[in-house]
Amino acid sequence: MENDKTADSTCSCAPKSDKLSFITFTHDIPACEILTITSTLTLKDRFGHFLARWGVNRMGYIVKPNLYKLGNPDADSPVFVSANYTMSFDALRSALAGIDCYILVLDTKGINVWCAAGKGTFGTEELVRRISWSGLSDIVQHRTIILPQLSAPGISAHEVQRRSGFRVEYGPVRANDLAEYLKTHKATPEMRRVHFSLWNRLVLTPMELVHAALPTLAVAIVLYFLAGPLAALAAITTVLTGTVLFPVLLPFIPTHDFSTKGLILGEIVAIPFALTFAADSVTSLWPNVLKALVFLLVMPAVTAYLALNFTGCTTFTSRTGVKKEIFRYVPFMAFIAGSGIVISILLGIFRLMKVI
Amino acid sequence: MFDSYVENTLQYYPDKCINCLRCTQVCPHGVFSEGKEHVELVRPAACMECGACALNCPVQAIEVQSGVGCAWAMISAALRGKDMDSAECGCGDGSCCGGNSKNPFLIEKL
């Protein structure tokens, strides 16, 4: 990253010492100091992205809300708008390599574009306020701003135009399509569509795992002492199935609902554990059957619940649909999980009583 | 029976439509398509109720009860004694999204 930042500033809205190494200060805009950036992503940037995917300092991974310039823009150069989440910002600036432009970064509280739009932080109010604050109307001659398409749930384009004088143009979904889009300022239907590819799903799994890691470890330790290493392994396997295997296999599992997909996948994963216990020659048949049943009941229930929670990470689940899923399947999940736990408690009691 | 996503709250009033095509520009699932006199509703079941179309329609030809399609957020709201429909994405509050988002993969996008 370049780091030729200068120290002095006379502008009232000039930033204080900024730690972003790709930023340099310029002094040619009296209304508000514009920060200069490059489109180059360094190894440090990419490492930062990697850490953020694992949840390391995620909320600290932000860009200063401000007006930035890339290359040597003039009064006719395009103006893009982005969130102040570093990875959103980096995706945009790297996609704009070789394009002289301005980037107006809103204060989205470190949240990416689509989610910030959903929460209202990437919204009409913030956009109108930032346009005014940055003095954009004095910096460019035209009155068009290019927004990410996925910011639309938070933006009322006609309201922005009425209040700021700037016409909102929605760019494509993916930053990689920007160069092509800018040739005609028209997006193809494909550019307008959001997908949920294997890679998209895979990059979600580290965060899912991080959130589940501690509780899983605690449960596994308890199960290790209560029921042995295989039970502990079953707990870890269940969580890995729900948080990693499920996202990977999402499109390939039959049925449409996440809960039923999770039940199917959990049942498949439970079978080897169930068979292992069922084939135990040390104890008699009926305790073995009950032990096997515990796995066949609990593992699918937990996997299904984790699968249902994955709705929050997807690009296509509606609130209406998720609500239906919750009412349809959560009681059933609770019932089978509860049944499995009750059976395992009974087995423990029988063992203490030396019945089995 | 096993598809909870067939129905949603999307309502479209073609008689109000002025054919500005905003909805076709903002919908990430191709729910709307350009028509002759007005926009056509071609994939209603694909609507994820994000609300972008309704918010950007200058003549209120579209209505949708937008909200977060996130079970974690809805169940959390219910457990706190709140209405599930009032659930908000917990982005940045240590939710499933962590500090990033409901859809962390969107970092790959604009």
TrEMBL record, chain B:
SUPFAM superfamilies: 4Fe-4S ferredoxins. This is Mercury methylation ferredoxin HgcB. The lineage of its organism: Archaea, Methanobacteriati, Methanobacteriota, Stenosarchaea group, Methanomicrobia. Keywords: 4Fe-4S, Iron, Iron-sulfur, Metal-binding. Residues 8-37, 38-67 form the 4Fe-4S ferredoxin-type domain. PANTHER family: ADENYLYLSULFATE REDUCTASE, BETA SUBUNIT, BLR5484 PROTEIN. The gene is hgcB. One of its GO terms (molecular function) is metal ion binding. InterPro entries: 4Fe4S_Fe-S-bd, 4Fe4S_Fe_S_CS, Fe-S_Ferredoxin. Pfam families: Fer4_9.
